[in-house]
Amino acid sequence: MGIYKRRQDGHEQPSMLGPLQLRLPFIHYKIELPDWIQGAILSVVPMSITAIMLEVLGIPFELAIVFVIINNFLYLLHTHFGDPSVVGWITAGIPLYVAFLSGFPEGEARIQALIALQAMLALIFLIMGLFKGADYLVNKVPLSLKAGILIGAGFAAVFGEFQTDGRVWSMPITILVGAGLGFFMMFSKSAGPLRERYSLFRFVAQYGIAIPFAIAYLFGILIGEVAKPSLTWSFVALPLGEIFSSYSIFAVGVPPVEYFMQALPLAVAAYIIAFGDVLVASSLLKRADEVRKDEKVKFSPSRNSIIVSIRNGLQAIFMPFLGMSGPQWTAGQALVTTRYMNNSRNVVDSYWGGATGIYWGMSFALLLGPIVSLFQPGVAIGMTLTMLIQGYLCGYLAMELLKETSTLEKGIAVIIGAVLVAKGATWGLGVGLVLWLLLEFDWTKRKSEEKDESVSA
Asked: Is the pTM of this model over 0.85?
């Protein structure tokens, strides 16, 4: 579709503006219609945060959906400026943000607290990006710590859905049917041979969890677990002036200094959680790069961090966003990379077509009243499928990291994961560092090396 610049096999997709690596649709990559459609169907996932925004911040659905739309278009900064990540919120931290904001009076004070939190997070990402801290963490952090963070993130994602008041129990049959179909399509041993044998299965499977979600949603309506949608036949209104005059830093004022100080520990914890997403993105993209030899896809944690900082900074000023801006959406990343890896260049020419397409489709769909109103009752299904896939991916990537390590490192990783789930990201990382220093770090070797150096001198 369209005329676009083609690459030589084994090279990066063409771009412009030198190191900025700007890529535009029709010019630098082909439009991947399946990813657009998949994104449009999955627009139900970002819609799910509107209920929390109403409950915690008092932002009505009509305005909250506009926050979501703008946030979605900001995602495109990544794939249009050389970062291959399919990005999203820092989802696992949402309960922490809600608890933090609940400690402030409702109204402007609570909005100021959110501005302070997101501004501090933007600063942390900027520092880590500019000074290559993200690259260092990805390449130098011990495998036990990396795997432990992934294990903890995976368990937290699944526990949150299956706990007593989790989303699974709000519509158990519907959600479990959708999860079963989604996992079968994406990860089962049978899926590969079925793609090869049957064109219909191959056609359906290329849409990832979009088709399982649609089937589960319809099934849920039929059995009465999901309410029937009430369609609205119009475009979604975009009252940008009202958002600016009611929620921006120019409307509520610059937060007091103590708000920034109170937000700093949570901003650090949010970055620690987000670091797990950086690890997942790095692993998934490395694997995709190994499978598809015809294209070189490079992931730079520093570039990713700088763009994440820009997104958080813009939102802190103009429209503080409760989900925060994170470095990756694990389920979306899996959908894009899975379709990319499972197809030849003749079917999916470039990774960038799918990585941008999923958000072009989702963002435009969120502007359409019929789509927003159609999927609104299925918000819980989309969010739960996302979290369960995130749990699965975090788990198997952690196991891959630990495949050739010692039992010591495996044990440390399990403890880190358990503490992270029980006490949060800060505790998990702290315990991990202590265990690494006590158990993994060879102090005797260090002493002997120092003694040898002194003797030779």
From this structure: no
